[in-house]
C-alpha cells in the first residue's frame, strides 16, 4: 500500500493539523509515514501545504510531484494542486471558499465539500479542517475513521471534553457528507 496526499490552504485553516492527524493515525496503524510541511512567509493568511506519504513499505522520498490526492481549502490551492493530482486520483474541494465550477478535471474523483458551511452549522467555522479530514478519510479509506475520532483526546490532551466532542462531530459530519453528499 502506498498513498500520498497534498493538503493545502492558507495559514490558520488547520492544514498542518489535518496532516498531523493523518500521520498519527497511520503510525498507530503501523504504516510508514513521511510528513513534509511548507509555509509561505506569513504566519496567518499566507500559503500552507503539507505532503503526507503513507505506506506499508519503506518510503524513499517525502516529495511527490503527482499525488494520488489533494485536499484544497482555498482557491489558490485548487489552481496549484488540481493539475498535479494523478489521473483517477481524488480531489477534495472546500466549496465554502472555492467556486465549484473552477474544479474542472473529469479524470479524477472530486468531492465538492462545503467544509466551512458544515463547520459553521456545527457552531464553529474553525472546525472546517476536521470536516475535511472526516470526508477525506471516508472517501479514501486510507486510514481508520474510528481511530481518527478515538485519538482526539491524545492529540488534544489539554482541551476540555466539549472541544473533543465538537471535533468528533465535525469529523463525523464530514464523513457523512462524503457518503450522502449532503449536510443532513
Largest sheet: 6 strands, mixed
CATH homologous superfamily designation: Pyruvate-ferredoxin oxidoreductase, PFOR, domain III
Helical proportion, percent range:
25-40%
CATH topology: Pyruvate-ferredoxin Oxidoreductase, domain 3
Shape: globular
Number of helices, where a helix is a run of at least 4 consecutive DSSP H or I residues: 7
What's the architecture, going by CATH? 3-Layer(aba) Sandwich
Q: How would you describe the oligomerization state of the chains in this entry?
A: single chain
Report the radius of gyration as a whole number of Å. Answer: 15 Å
Structural class: alpha/beta
When the domains are counted, the total is 1
Mean pLDDT: 93
- Please give the number of β-strands: 6
Low-confidence spans: none
Strand content: 15-25%
Order of helices and strands: EHEEEHEEHHHHH
- The CATH class label is Alpha Beta
What is the strand arrangement across the widest sheet?
Answer: 2-3-1-4-5-6
The N- to C-terminal Cα distance equals 33 Å
Question: What can you see in these coordinates?
Answer:
With 184 residues, this protein is of the alpha/beta class. It has one domain: Pyruvate-ferredoxin oxidoreductase, PFOR, domain III (Pyruvate-ferredoxin Oxidoreductase, domain 3, 3-Layer(aba) Sandwich). 39% of the residues lie in helices and 22% in strands. It is built from seven helices and six strands; from the N terminus they run E-H-E-E-E-H-E-E-H-H-H-H-H. It has a six-stranded mixed beta sheet with strand order 2-3-1-4-5-6, with helices on both faces. A hairpin with a 7-residue loop joins strand 2 and strand 3. Helix 4 crosses helix 7. The model has no long low-confidence stretch (mean pLDDT 93).
Amino acid at each position: 500500500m502506498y498513498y500520498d496526499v497534498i493538503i493545502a490552504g492558507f495559514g490558520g485553516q488547520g492544514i498542518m493539523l489535518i496532516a498531523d492527524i493523518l500521520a498519527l493515525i497511520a503510525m498507530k496503524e503501523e504504516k510508514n509515514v513521511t510528513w513534509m510541511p511548507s509555509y509561505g512567509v506569513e504566519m496567518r493568511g499566507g500559503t500552507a501545504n503539507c505532503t503526507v506519504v503513507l505506506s506499508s513499505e519503506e518510503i524513499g522520498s517525502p516529495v511527490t510531484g503527482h499525488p494520488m490526492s489533494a485536499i484544497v481549502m482555498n482557491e489558490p490551492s485548487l489552481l496549484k494542486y488540481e493539475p498535479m493530482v494523478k489521473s483517477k486520483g481524488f480531489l477534495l474541494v472546500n466549496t465554502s471558499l472555492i467556486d465549484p465550477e473552477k474544479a474542472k478535471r473529469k479524470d479524477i474523483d472530486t468531492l465538492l465539500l462545503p467544509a466551512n458551511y458544515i463547520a459553521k452549522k456545527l457552531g464553529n467555522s474553525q472546525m472546517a479542517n476536521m470536516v475535511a479530514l472526516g470526508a477525506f478519510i471516508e472517501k479514501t479509506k486510507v486510514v481508520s475513521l474510528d481511530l481518527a475520532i478515538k485519538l482526539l483526546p491524545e492529540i488534544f490532551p489539554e482541551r476540555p471534553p466539549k472541544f473533543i466532542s465538537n471535533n468528533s462531530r465535525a469529523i463525523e459530519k464530514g464523513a457523512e457528507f462524503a457518503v450522502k453528499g449532503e449536510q443532513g
